[in-house]
Amino acid sequence: MGTGELDREALVAAGTEAGGVTPAPRTLAEALRARGDEGLAALLHARPDLLVPVPSDLTQLATRAGTRASVVRALERLDRFALQTAEALAVAPDPAPYSVLHGLMGGDEGDPDVSAALPRAVGVLREQALVWGDDERLRLVRTARELLAPSPQHPSPTGLGPTVAEATAGMSPTRLQEIIATAGLPTTHDPVSAVAALTDLFTDRERMGALLDTAPMDALGVLDRLVWGPPYGEVTPNPAPPVRWLRDRGLLLPATARTVVLPREAALHLRAGRAHRAPEPVPPAVTPSRTATFTEGRPQVVDSAAASQAYTALATIDELAKEWNEGGPAVLRAGGLSVRDLKRTAAALDVPEQVAAFWLEVAYGAGLIATDGEADERYAPTPAYDEWAALPAAERWTRLAGAWLASTRTPGLVGSQDTKGRTLAALGPDLDRGAAPEVRHRVLRLLAGLPAGASPDPDSLLARLRWERPLRGASKETGADLRARLAGWTLSEAELLGVTGRGALSAHGRALLPGAPAPGTDHPVDGHAPDHPRRAHVPAPAGPGADTFSGRRPAQAGDTTHAGAAALLAPLLPEPVDHVLLQADLTAVAPGPLQRPLADTLAVLADVESKGGATVYRFTPGSVRRALDAGQAAADLHAFLEAHSRTPVPQPLAYLIDDVARKHGHLRVGAASAYVRCDDDTVLGEILADKRGASLRLRRLAPTVLASQADPAALLEGLRSMGFAPAAESAEGDVLITRAHTYRTPARTAPAPVPEGPPAPDATLLGAAVRAIRAGDLASTVARKDEPATSGAAGNGDMPRTSAAETLATVQAAAMTGSAVWIGYVNAEGAASQRVIAPVRVEGGFVTAYDHTADEVRTYPLHRITGVAELADDAG
């Protein structure tokens, strides 16, 4: 046998019974051991919490799969029918044949839909290690049975009560004999046979029907109230005749001194064998909305509307960055944005506060805004914003949409309160919800399955989501259905972002979802047909070094796989224009989005008056002065307007620029603490006489100079409010040019999603984990040759103990023959482990070997090997 070529199947077979027939698994660990690598990979992919940390062997994996926390998490990810199947197994005999389970789900009359869907549900439960065993001995893991089985404290979801045997435990033998005699059964000699006789009666359809035919009508009414649960009812010390009739015949058995219970076998007879009132084997369909039929069958209308909103989204983010360009609002001590600053931001963006919170979270999730980390911490755009702004519009949009899809941030929670009564703030630390990305992807995939151009009926969409994850809903904050709220927010946020248009999924929105269904195909759960066992379709690792895995992953912010979405959106976005239309009323109309240099200059020279398909800018003395303060001369402004206007520059606008330029800088303000100088002393006299300047506390120092106790900035602002156009000057007497100071945070990475549990494992981790678990299991279960008692060889999985000479001789022999051996090893930290190795070279006190446990070549000091044992002949 060559190095590293140990036959795993032969080693596993060495532990099976003689005769070559694999026995039925007796434990979950044995059931997992019988799986192929693909089955193990599917389990680990479906339940990633089992990988933290990677189990040492299959026994540890089975133990971890049966812990309460892991089972609860797995149950929460079941769809409604798979959960109903697990609930039926919880009230079935343990183990239960498939035929018994089928009867509990379909009833005596059967249900074609149940028969078609049940194999898929059992396959899901088996795949996730919630059920194990063959079809003749289906076993629900003990923890799941305890969680789902009925009890007085935790009634079963099926509404069934305890069995006859459970309900009569502790009942006196005399009372048992009285019950079976009243029910028309012969008396027995012991309580066990009496319970068996009563159970047989309740499970015999013919005899049970005959007994109920003799019941009073009022007694049947009592049974009708209990049959679908809850099965418990209160009784008085002297119950009414109908209750007494049922109690005397065991149809109602005492649960406590004041309560009775309908035994499970009797309830199943009344239900015609069905564990659930309404099994739901088929997921409810998502139907198109009846109120929005204009776009159905007209995808071009949807795409145009979505593209228009996508352009608005980009413009809104740009507006937000300009608003915070010189440094945004301060960060609250507890993190996030204050209510007052959120209101100011909403007013600047001209949107409601809740919508403003959404745009803030989208920009934050894409890494475009962040905190600066200074002592007086503030929000500001990041350097990544400048890189993002330089991209083509379609690529900028895909960055935003990708960040929104992958983010766990939940803007819809802004303004609500947490469990401690604290208001959740925009950009705050408590807005992450791990279910958000899953719900967003799922909602969009369901929209993708509707006919082209159709928007969903919200009620049908929520019904589908509740069917798919019936246990994942209750919000800790409000007790409301969080998934339903997330779905509603997803629909509105997708519309704001331009992923949908008029409520229907756009073509570029569909391109964000790899493998989305074709329009008009109501896509089954997780892409698998409901009448086939669902599999994760995880390929087994090909061998040492294999690291491929075909599982899908959610889109990440900035994902380059969104190139298709950008290509579809780009033709629908308006091309930037390089001109404006000047009008005589001192306004300019931009007939489309402006090229960035033109837009930046015009934003300084004029104020935005209205937005829409065409943006209207208004020129005012203040806006022209702003451009002059930024270093522009009147001649520069005239040349700029002539170069970029398709209409002649109106005379009133030219006069406005010249008039403001003529007055601009006529007054000079510097630092004395502050002074005003002007060559025209009459102007200074006018300022001194103006009562509005009293707060500046001006006094004349010379015919052309006034001094003030105010600082230069306050003096400049005060004079401008009085109608003058002063200019600041330096200590050398030169005019200071004031430009908007662009403030950026240090380099920041976009916030990582915060999932509720461990993230889905990638290909490398899955492949390595399966190999490590297999190798560890091999080391703990492989058959070994019996050693003399004096050698100290371990048996039954104990660490082997051999002398140093025996250890050296055995590994040298294994290196010469190319065989594998089993060793006990203690590392430098004192941790002991068992390993199967194939020695290659032994020299200098070290053995170099291929370690099947680690799936790599390693070198071990001989003095750290506690002992060695040869593998059994049939294992090699």
Automatic annotation (TrEMBL):
Which residue numbers delimit the Helicase XPB/Ssl2 N-terminal domain?
580-702
Q: Which GO terms describe its molecular function?
A: DNA binding
Give the UniProt keywords, A-Z. Answer: DNA-binding
- Where along the chain is composition biased (Basic and acidic residues)? 523-533
Q: Where is this region: Disordered?
A: 513-558, 781-801
Q: Where is the signal peptide?
A: none
Q: Which domain of life is it from?
A: Bacteria
Taken from the record, one Pfam family name reads Helicase_C_3
Question: Per the database record, which ranges form the WYL domain?
Answer: 806-868
InterPro entries cross-referenced by the UniProt entry: WYL_dom, XPB/Ssl2_N
Q: What is the protein's given name?
A: DNA-binding protein
